[in-house]
Amino acid sequence: MTAGAKPPTAQDAVRLASDLVAAGFATLAAAAEGCDVLLANGMTAAAADAATVTAKLLLSSAHPEWPTTTV
Asked: Does the predicted model carry a pTM greater than 0.70?
């Protein structure tokens, strides 16, 4: 993404972000077909995609939150 001859512009960043969200949604939607439940964990964007997919496919969903521990 950023290894090109020039740094990405603000418009490139918006397009790349949009493409990333669309790809995540498409991947999760395909993987969730035929499932009863979708369990999501990880980045906020992935969790948002999972919530949208579960709503679209009328699935049960869960997004567990684990506390961050500092040593």
From this structure: no
